[in-house]
């Protein structure tokens, strides 16, 4: 890593972090993490091994892991595992940073940002957003894919603490926060891809590693998360 991964001029640090009542060393670690994310519009870092990250952040491994733990507990950071590497995804809004398309749309997938008002309205209503917030977000022209991704995120078992999912989604959309990458991928599934997942799920392939999806690494990787969310949605639909 001969070339510095940090921005040449400055790092954007939200006041909510800079002025937080936490250990200053933790704030410095978070600032450095944001610096690693600047090339991706402060949405996520490149993939690094734990040793590379510890070195870049200037922390011993034990301190590095302890800080990651605390930053996740503060809901400032999400840590995604990619094989032997980690990708750090800030969960705080950075002013003037437009959401980043985390995966380029393929020829058979709809491009983000091209949905009309009707598509956006349907996505907002599906997420339980009505009244003034709905009208506000329609004027803001939020991307329907982002709305759907945050909606799917609220159905993950880890989000059972949410007592007002619609309100949480509204806040994330107002801040322009990007959903976690894997939920954005779920929201971008085409009808054909969803049908393939449903067929595999109906054959109980989750216990066999999704064999019918062999050859489609992306879909096979998404299948376990898709099954979890799909099952949660089905259980509510079956028991209104």
Helix/strand-derived category reads mainly alpha
Walk across the major sheet and give the strand order: 1-2
Give the total of beta strands. Answer: 2
Number of separate structural domains: 3
CATH architectural group of the largest domain: Orthogonal Bundle
The fraction of residues assigned to DSSP E strands is 5-15%
State the distance separating the first and last CA atoms.
54 Å
Which radius of gyration do the C-alpha atoms yield?
A: 19 Å
Summarize this, please?
By secondary structure, this protein is mainly α.
Account of the protein in words:
There is one protein chain. With 240 residues, the chain is mainly alpha-helical. The chain has 3 domains: 15-90, Arc Repressor Mutant, subunit A, CATH 1.10.10; 117-187, no CATH class; 191-238, no CATH class. Helices cover 50% and strands 5% of the residues. It contains 11 helices and 2 strands, in the order ααααββααααααα. It has a two-stranded antiparallel ribbon with strand order 1-2. Strand 1 (77-82) and strand 2 (85-90) form a beta hairpin. Helix 5 packs parallel to helix 7 (144-153), helix 7 (144-153) packs across helix 8 (165-175) and helix 7 packs across helix 9 (181-187). It is globular and about 50 Å long. The N and C termini lie far apart (54 Å).
